Amino acid sequence: MGILSFRRFQRRWPLGGLLVAWLALIAAPLPAVRSQEPPPLTFFVPVSGTLNDAQPAETWQFEGYTGQVVSLIAVTTDGDLDPVLQVTGPDGQIVAENDDLDSLVRDAGLEALTLPADGTYTVRVSRYQGEQGTSHGSYQLTLTPGFARQAVRGEFEQGDVSWVTPDGQPVPLLQGYLQMRVSGQSATLLAVPPEDLRAADVYLQAEARLLGTPPYAEFGLILRAQGPGLGRFYQFKVNTQGQWHVLYQDETGVYALRTWTDAPVLNTPNRTWSLAVMARGERLDFFANGVMLGTVSDARLLTPGTVGVFVSTGDQPSAATVLFDQVIATTRLGSTYRGLPLALTTWEAPDPATIVNELAEGGHITPAPARDLYLFEKTQASTDLASVFELLGSEQAVYGDFLFGGRVTIVTEGQSVGCGLVFRWTDERNLSLAYVDSSQGFGLVQAQDAQLTTNVYDLSPLVQPETSRLLIIAQGERVAYYLNGALVAQETMIPGKGRVGVALLNYEDVNTRCLWSELWVWPLTG
Asked: Which of 172, 184, 216, 289 is most buried, by CB atoms within 10 Å?
């Protein structure tokens, strides 16, 4: 019911910043050990640190080799810390750096980083803008081989659940090892983890120890195993003659992707090998004993599957026993985000209770017993360059924490028009607004005393040219914006209470109508 004049300007930032100017209103980890030498990092062992004005950065170190693939994730555990990661190589040159792992978090991460050389790598964790920064708090830093999410870890201690053959038979454990034994010509035994792992991009490593001195044996790793009896997979083999080999197998046959190739690093007097394979799309990288053996490209099996280990006698009529240990598989983490779901499965449900129940069952909200407001439809029209707001419900309908949803359609002769939902309104100088526009953009704005305290804008194909469904979730200072079921923005906004309404934003002197339907408010408690 109020009218607010405005002018429009636009800048585009990636969603990681979630900040684009749009509107101007008229008026258990290990503690860091401090020493001259940076403390070491160990795979899978988190370390912790604290950054503030007195200590804006800390450094750590790890040993790496040429072609090795690692991941580093720095997660804020306390405070408002905005960490930044930087990795420096043995030659002192920066290898990689990262501020925000993705658009939904401040945590920093470098996933599947390929190291360029042998030597010592230094990891610097700093706060954003360093000494000039203002954020502070504690972080946890974790180094992993390959990708950042641990999917499988087989240590095979007494009492552990064993791995199984393709027909479900458990493989025996022996003194902390997975014991794989075969005998007879062309005998092969394959074992996979009991958990239902399905991954296409995956890193797999294992320690293999050969018992005795058989005249010949083959053993190694498999990945993307799938199909009846796990009949389709890639296979990385090594043998007791210091060679390696790569195969692809499916229902039509077995195909060599790399013939038997000599590798001096495989000639180990102690009969123990460290093997690894990294799969990223068509590219497969192979490693042994801290050396990259080579790369194969193949596109015949790109779908997710499980991983495993195997032993074979090849074409020899002998017996062979291999003990596997520390079998580890990592997969893509992608994000450290653990908040509201990135997508709602019920977003198109005609009954708001269905959407509310999905969020409540996930533990994300505590809803009131029933909704407070529901309007089947609402329309606004304007031919002037203006912002037109209309409040809904009675003057006593004031909300602090709530869900506010509705469908919106833009009908206009112009090219620069927005329609949206107003919430926490007290007057024209103090309000919050979520909107979509005719340029396929969306925005989230908060004004306090006519000053913008939140100002988010971006373009997205999620904005439909006909009708879009908007949903706002306000919980204290946390405000989330869903657009057609997808979480497009999460912002920290000044909390408060106010009324809800609708808004037409006309940037031109053109005939414009905003049409809303299924408008509803559901209060939250607790």
From this structure: 289
